[in-house]
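Write out the 3D structure for:
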Amino acid sequence: MQCIDMEPDRRRLNPQRPLAWRGCERTYELSRLWREQWQQATGAPAHFSWYFRMDPQVERVYGSATWIVDRYPEMVEDLRRRGDEIGLHVHFYRWDLERRHWVVDHGNTRWVEHCLASSLAAFRRALGRPCESFRGGDAWMSQEAVAQLEASGVRFDLTLEPGQEGYRGLRRWERHSGWIPDLRGIPQRPYLPSRANFKKPDSDRRDGMWLIPVSRGEAVGLPGLAFRLYRLLIHRVRLERTWITLYLFQEPLLFRQVVARLLDSMEHPCLVLLNHSQAVLRPYFRRNIKKNLSYLLSRPRARDFVLSTPHEAMASLKIIPGINGVGSRD
């Protein structure tokens, strides 16, 4: 699976100066090339998974939470026609009227509930159907959020990042409340969570929202050391171990190391790759995407890869019962 978060070009948004989402436009253009490369290498249809921002921050800055769908209707229709997944991507920014700045308000339970409810309602208005696939911003999730999403009919969540150490805030310059959750020990595979603890699978459950963790792995040697230093300097996070998220724009040495380790260790290989729309605006990240995609599609068993939506991927993983959908090759 390749998840693409479609969102504004900057984290710091000026409510008085809404800017075009140039990264979304460029990502959509490049996706035609990426799709062609996947299909040529695998001989199978390639389906991306797109996650649109429709949360209160977007509504405040752009006047409507459904701005991306209203602004790019031709793109949305094209993605639908191609069989791609369109899901929801939510950040939990709250505008502090008194201090006039954004707060990443994970610790405010009522605000989180409002963000989820209003975003899910906006998705239904814009797309004419309930949201079935969800990604939370900044890899944040809570027990209450899982319950709310499940009660709202969401079938797949692709937020969790295995091995993630708990910490306060993703950016050192942002004001925030609450914690990014500690996800050390959660599975690398899709699972139905315990209703008491979303970090633990419940093997007795047969229905509900599936948690599909993002692919991550530990980097070793000099690349891993360099990454730990980067997180310490930029994010003020001191990591015990170097777990790398498989962003397509990730540094190629790290990306290749983690991909190889995961594919060699998984009984039923299933990679969940991430991309952000703003990444393509940076030449360095564009080069990384090109190199990493080339690496994936040149691997010895690349012909066996299938780029699929969450629905399709879950249907093909026959170890998981109770999912009806379109099957794909093993």
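The chain has a mean pLDDT of 91.
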